[in-house]
Amino acid sequence: MSGPVCRMCRTALTPAGRGRPALYCSRGCQAKAYRRRKQTPPPAAGRPAAASGAQARRRRQIAEALWRIAAERGLHAASLREVAAEAGVSLRAVQYHFENKHQLLVGALHLLHEENERIARSRITDDLSDPRALLRAVLDEFLPVDAQRTTALRVFTAYYVRSLTDPALAEVFLSAEQHLERMVAGLIETAQAAGCTAPGLDARCEADLLVAGAVGLGTDVLHGRRTLDDVRRTLDYHLDKIFAGDPVRTARVPGEDRRTAADDQRAAGADAQRAAGSG
Q1: Which residue, 255, 94, 223, 52, is CA-closest to 153?
Q2: Backbone angles phi, psi at 119, to 5 degrees
Q3: Backbone torsion region of residue 253, taken as left when φ is above 0, otherwise alpha when ψ lies between -120 and 50, otherwise beta
Q4: Euclidean distance between CA atoms 173 and 73, whole angstroms
Q5: Of 64, 115, 147, 218, whose CB has the highest number of CB atoms within 10 Å?
Q6: Which of 4-13, 187-196, 246-255 is modeled with the greatest confidence?
Q7: Model pTM?
Q8: Residue 269 confidence class, pLDDT cut points 50, 70, 90
Q9: Contacts of 84 (CB under 8 A, 6+ apart)
């Protein structure tokens, strides 16, 4: 069949002489098409429709623009128009992928979480044979030790500030599940089961202190109030208290002389030999 046809019943349409070409053969077909569109079920709540590769790349481009603005000027400066200019796209393109600013903030936050998790997994090996070293590597992810982690910490700090006056954003940003604290608590519990920690620890309380301490000290580094070495010494000090029951402490705090249980045994043997010889 050649020529235009009705989009509803496929009946051939008479070509229009002037103006916009007709899409339907009658008002009845037009009404049916409208009702069908209205009845199409929306995507499930909390599960956005799958985006094509090009759409995913454009969403990522827009999110990265928001991250840069948030890191440099704060989220209050991240209007849709400013984000569009930073991303090098039109305002209409931003509104196509994110209907309003709240959706943009939430979408960019989820993408940042995914990006940080992907990069962290590439840096951290799941070596449970040394839980202290593993936990130390996890804590490093909260510190501004390189450009990527510095930007991430600045962006998360901007989100935290915004969440204080934006209840809708706070509901998303301040997740009640506390994934980071649960992960750190799990590592401490693994070390407890292996007999590597001091007795009587509450793993969840220790995790809360470590996460809050690492993030808070990390922001001090951003402000220049502390150096990374200062922060790492503080974290190592607390880790030494947690892992006081570990018979072999592989980690060392810079500038301090640490002795293992094997060192103590050798020293005790040498003392005994000297005492026997002097007798």
Answers
A1: 223
A2: -70, -40
A3: beta
A4: 19
A5: 218
A6: 187-196
A7: 0.66
A8: very low
A9: 62, 65, 90, 91, 93, 94
